[in-house]
């Protein structure tokens, strides 16, 4: 008889076997096939980190800090990011051609030279000035387009951002809460994996499997579930 798998919240009173070297896969991240086991968990996190760093340095992908959690990041292929940015710029209502040029300056002198998740106001202005005279209005255009966002702690620092990602981040947060709510309503805060995966989320555009992997990765659910 095939053993059914359950999903539960981590508990300090009940010990579960776990592989300390395993780390679940994350949907947005490209991962080498030989680092993933049959259950979908990552066997060698160090190797994956090396692959991601190599792809980042080669400008194949870009990493973004998300505001949904302290350690939340998104990984996006550079080509997809550039296409998304160009799509947003085309829909921007700007008064002059000079205003539009700031986006080209940003693409040429900032995106490809600054690979970190954040950038300071002075460095941003300096890089943009390699093309022409930069005004505060130009910085405001980048913020309004959702290409950069100010950090709350330090107003002189900006996060690089993915335009139009707001609805996805909202769904991510709501989906996390909804999944945990399913478990909290159970007597032992457990639920069979198969029926849980089939449940439809009301407040998230992301599929249940994505949220389960997300919660496993954050430590909110045990790693030995084995989502494949």
TrEMBL record:
<comment type="similarity">
    <text>Belongs to the STK19 family.</text>
</comment>
<keyword id="KW-0418">Kinase</keyword>
<dbReference type="GO" id="GO:0016301">
    <property type="term" value="F:kinase activity"/>
</dbReference>
<keyword id="KW-0808">Transferase</keyword>
<dbReference type="Pfam" id="PF10494">
    <property type="entry name" value="Stk19"/>
</dbReference>
<protein>
    <submittedName>
        <fullName>Serine-threonine protein kinase 19</fullName>
    </submittedName>
</protein>
<dbReference type="InterPro" id="IPR018865">
    <property type="entry name" value="STK19-like"/>
</dbReference>
<feature type="region of interest" description="Disordered">
    <location>
        <begin position="1"/>
        <end position="45"/>
    </location>
</feature>
């Amino acid at each position: 008889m095939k053993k059914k798998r359950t999903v539960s919240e981590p508990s300090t009173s009940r010990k579960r076997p776990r592989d300390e070297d395993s780390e679940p896969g994350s949907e947005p991240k490209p991962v080498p096939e030989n680092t993933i086991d049959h259950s979908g968990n990552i066997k060698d996190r160090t190797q994956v980190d090396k692959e991601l760093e190599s792809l980042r340095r080669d400008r194949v992908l870009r990493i973004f800090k998300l505001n949904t959690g302290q350690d939340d990041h998104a990984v996006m292929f550079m080509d997809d990011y550039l296409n998304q940015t160009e799509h947003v710029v085309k829909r921007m209502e700007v008064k002059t051609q000079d205003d539009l040029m700031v986006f080209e300056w940003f693409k040429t002198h900032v995106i490809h030279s600054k690979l970190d998740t954040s950038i300071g106001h002075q460095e941003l202005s300096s890089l943009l000035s390699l093309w022409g005279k930069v005004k505060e209005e130009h910085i405001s255009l980048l913020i309004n387009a959702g290409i950069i966002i100010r950090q709350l702690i330090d107003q002189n620092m900006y996060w690089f951002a993915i335009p139009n990602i707001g609805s996805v981040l909202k769904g991510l947060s709501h989906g996390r809460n909804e999944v945990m709510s399913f478990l909290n309503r159970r007597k032992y805060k457990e639920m069979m994996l198969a029926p849980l995966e089939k449940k439809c989320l009301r407040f998230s555009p992301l599929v249940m499997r994505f949220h389960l992997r997300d919660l496993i990765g954050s430590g909110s659910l045990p790693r030995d579930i084995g989502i494949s």
